[in-house]
Structures are given as C-alpha cells and as structure tokens.
Amino acid sequence: MRKRGWSPELIRAIKELRSLFPAWGKEKIWVLLKRLGFETSVSTCGRIISWLIERGELMPSGYKGRRRRRRGVLRFRRPWALRWLKGFRPREPGDLVEVDTLTVTLPDGKVRKQFSAKDVVSRWNVVEVFSSASSHCGRRFLEALLLRVPFRVKAIKVDGGSEFGGEFERECFCRGIRLYVVPPKSPEEQGYVERAQGMHRYEFYESYEVPLELGELREVVRGWEYVCNFIRPDGSLGGRTPREYLMEHHPEVASFETRLSQMYGTRTRG
User: Are 117 and 145 in contact (CB under 8 A)?
Assistant: First the structure.
C-alpha cells in the first residue's frame, strides 16, 4: 500500500479545526486550510478526517455523546488560533513572526504597553507603544506590523494574553494569517521575541531618557526600531543587521526601500 504523505502540521491543523467546528465537513475545513496557507485537496482533507475518526482522535459529525454542562465557561475561547506546533522550522522571512507585549514604567509612574514583533528568520523588528494592552491595540499593532515589514507575514506566534484575542485574532483571520498560541507559562517557546524584549528594555528604556508624552514616545520608539533593523549588529546574523541579511539573502526586498524611506524619513539615506 502507498504510504501516507501527510505532514504532521496538516494533520494537526485539520484536527484543531474539526474540533472547533465538529459539524463541518471536509469542504468547509478545506476552505479554512486554504486560508491558513496549506496546499492540499478536498479529498485529502476528507481522508485525514476519516483517519482521525478511525483512530478515535475525532468524533463523527453527528456524534453528540454525553456532555457535562459547565456554567460560565465558553466552549470556543479561541475560534481561529491554533496551538503551537513544536518542530515547525520556518525557512523564509515571514514564515513565522513572534509577537509579545512589554510593560514599561516611565519615570513619572505612568505605565505603557509596548507591542514587539520579531521575525524568526531575518530578525526584523517592529515595535509600537500604546496606553494599554487591549485587543483593539493589538489589532492596530498588527496593521502597523504588516506595513513595516519587507515581506509577507504568513504566521504569527503569541502567548495566551487577552490582547491577542478578540480584534487581534479576527484581523488575523480576515487577512489569512495563521495564528499560533503557545502553552501557558512557556516563555521558552517565544525565545526570539523574549530576547528582543530584553534588548528593548536594557538597551533603550534603561539607557536613554525617553519622553513621557505618548505621541512623542511613539516617535522615539520608531527611531529605536530603525536602529534595531539598520544599525545594530545582530550576533545571531553574524554581526549583520536584519536589513543587511535581507539584502544579501533576499535581494527582492530592495523594492521596499522607497517605503522604508517614507516610513523612517531621512534615516535610511546614507
């Protein structure tokens, strides 16, 4: 018999989606898989669902069983996000971007929330400061992230914070971006952005006097983002900056230079 060539990522995605929508057939699950970026057929999707049912990992679509009702608990807390798949190895810029929030306490006692993103392959950084860490702010950060990276973002990895649910999650769904959530108390699964958070805290906030007014702070943080991408040598890239890495290995991003000039002003010149 021909051996199955299904990838573990595809099997896991189908299992998660079918668990979220147990009454949906292979056609609807296949549409969701396409939005997540998986290349497969409707028949393959159906075979995997049948295989999972045979193994007892999924229930048939008409199965209800005996369920205990739990008051005050929502069954579908994360309608789009998937659990993080260990072993996934991104190969191209944008295959996986880690996003996290950093709590910043200013000298006047005010607390700001910085959303930080780190591309796993190119180490490209995007940072933005808000007055709070709500899903609305998360959505606004996602919109800024997609405008300020020189590649297409295919997947995002976050922790279970509420700022990455609601509007943030719906925006990922609308844009067809896969959203992965790491297990609770697992900062090691967010290693790239966690190290970036330390860089932002110690090399920026604790090394410079930053403005207290939110609008001015955002401008300064944008300048720091430029430093991280264009000036700061990254040890994991052999001392190159993220921009140098992209220009060397992905020269097609050269067309992004015009947008970068508009975004950072005169900083990109020279």
Answer: yes
Cα separations (Å) of 133 from 93, 139, 157, 180, 199?
26, 10, 17, 19, 20
| Domains identified in the chain and CATH numbers | 83-268 (3.30.420.10)
- Its pTM stands at 0.72
Give dist(CA 139, CA 162) in Å, integer: 12
Q: How many helices (H) and strands (E) does the chain have?
A: 9, 6
What is the spatial distance between Cα 92 and Cα 74, in angstroms, rounded to a whole number? 37
Q: What is the pLDDT of residues 235-263, one digit of tens each?
A: 899 888 999 999 999 887 656 655 665 56
- At 198-239, the pLDDT tens digits run 999 999 999 899 999 999 999 999 999 999 999 899 989 988
Amino acid, res. 171: E
| Bridge partners (DSSP) listed for residue 138 | none
DSSP string computed for 56-102: TSS--TT--------TT--S-S-SS-EE--TT----STTS-EEEEEE
Return the pLDDT at 19. 82
Distance of alpha carbon 261 from the chain centroid: 25
Question: Distance from CA of residue 259 to its chain's centroid?
Answer: 22
Beta strand 178-181 pairing with 111-119: unpaired
Q: Do the Cβ atoms of 225 and 267 come closer than 8 Å?
A: no
Q: Label residue 72 exposed, middle or buried (CB < 10 Å: 0-12, 13-18, 19+).
A: exposed
